[in-house]
Amino acid sequence: MERATIPTATRLTAGPDLPGRLLRSGDSRAVYSVREVARLLSLSLGSTYALVREGEIPARKLGGRWVIPKKRFHDWLNETTEQADGPEGWA
Hints:
Elements: E1 12-14, E2 22-24, E3 31-33, H1 34-41, H2 45-53, E4 60-62, E5 65-69, H3 70-84
Antiparallel strand pairs: 1-2, 3-5, 4-5
């Protein structure tokens, strides 16, 4: 029985947006995990799952796993930030 090997060309680096999280160099995935979004937003994992289930954060359930499309997430975040800059905004 042969053992699976990890290609030596795969280089792991710490992601600038996710301190302590290892990402593949040149990561071209189209989605974030709920854990990655929680770290990006500085939220607890439970709070992030609640926002995903409620539809606040744009996400899709694939099989039994939630994924957040990167482009939709960043569009949503930019839109949310722009609304917050209004008279009733967060700041």
